[in-house]
Design a protein that fits this description.
about 0% strand; elongated; homodimer; DNA-binding
DNA sequence: GTCTATAGCTAGATAGAC
DNA sequence: GTCTATCTAGCTATAGAC
């Protein structure tokens, strides 16, 4: 009886907490996800608490309840990006049929919806207003960049070691060349369309494998 | 005597007009040049008439006298960029010792002060707030991009024709790969320093000449 | 050409009721 | 957790005096 009572109480508490958490998580998540969309389209300074509140049908004050300062939201967006990135990479590492295929899959994921909706890749989206970002966010962005560069470098290294890519090349320089090309192309695609983007990837593949 | 009088009168008018024009041109030019600096650092939405007025020691209203709407200032910045670009290219075309040297000179000019002052190249600076730009400016930016791409393509073509670059490559795809790499690297350099930038250029040169 | 003054709107942020 | 109300500050832009 006492046990049942405790149990019921526990359930109730759990339920209450769960319900509260669910609501909390939902609103919070909706804020983060809409913000991530806006970030990729317009940069961190390109959307406001008013935009978010209108999209979710709540007030600005409610948004501030979840993220008191905008820098808090910015850091949550860094977390979101990191999750997106880690989940993607483990996926590609498991399924890719070759090193080039890994890069292809990565690019395809980063570009998903980007080309049609004039959005940037999640990591480089912060670069739009880089000079105006708080230092705490800059540091996170830098870490995300390094993480990405490390992964691409490892793919290049493996490709060179296994004679998939041409020998005698610096894998890190190749990796940065690849990343810069992709992101530059994505910037251009917003104004010039995707043809040039695909064409550039093809050219890179040719250079990578035959030089 | 009459002649002298007329001459004097003419001089005076000329002087007045010249002085007025000089002042006009100076203020106007100062606005454009400071705006160009800010554009390259923070994007078109990243500076305001208040910033300009403070920098020049005049009021916002005076800035509006020269550029009634901000889109007018934006179009003037497109003109400024076009001038910068055309002057540069004729300079490189005249002095470069090889096609690769042309590209090197172009990159060096575009990067001048950029790397140390965290600025972007003048053409791609508009990309920071691309989705928020008025259509009239977007069109101008697109035209500037095409102009740049045409020039680099011609350099690549000439390099291939003269056996300076590896044969059997699509000069336009090479050109876009080059441009994307440069601009992507410049974005990165704002946060990661210039080493990666120079390293990437070296890698590109290797790929271009030996593939 | 430059100024003062002002308009209307939006930004990020906070206090306190419910 | 959401609301109303409010704050300070910034934004683009205009009217009209000097």
């Amino acid at each position: 009886m006492q046990l049942y009572y405790l149990h019921a109480d526990y359930q109730m508490n759990t339920k209450t907490v769960t319900a509260a958490n669910t609501k909390l998580i939902n609103t919070r998540q909706q804020i983060v996800e809409y913000s991530a969309d806006m970030l990729r389209a317009n940069g961190f300074e390109g959307f406001s608490y008013l935009d978010i509140s209108r999209h979710l049908g709540i007030t600005k004050a409610s948004v501030h309840h979840h993220f008191p300062k905008k820098v808090d939201l910015g850091l949550a967006l860094c977390d979101w990006t990191q999750d997106w990135f880690e989940q993607g990479l483990s996926h590609f590492d498991a399924r890719a049929t070759s090193n080039w295929n890994k890069l292809e899959r990565y690019v395809r994921a980063a570009m998903k919806h980007s080309l049609n909706e004039h959005k940037l890749c999640p990591i480089s989206a912060f670069y739009s207003d880089l000079n105006k970002l708080p230092d705490s966010i800059k540091e996170r962005v830098k870490a995300l960049d390094d993480y990405e560069l490390d992964w691409v470098t490892a793919v290049m290294q493996d490709g060179i070691d296994n004679d998939e890519f041409a020998p005698n090349q610096d894998p890190r320089a190749l990796a940065s060349l690849f990343i810069f090309s992709c992101k530059g192309a994505l910037y251009y695609a917003r104004l010039h369309g995707k043809d040039l983007f695909h064409q550039t990837m093809k050219q890179f593949e040719h250079l990578l494998k035959s030089s």
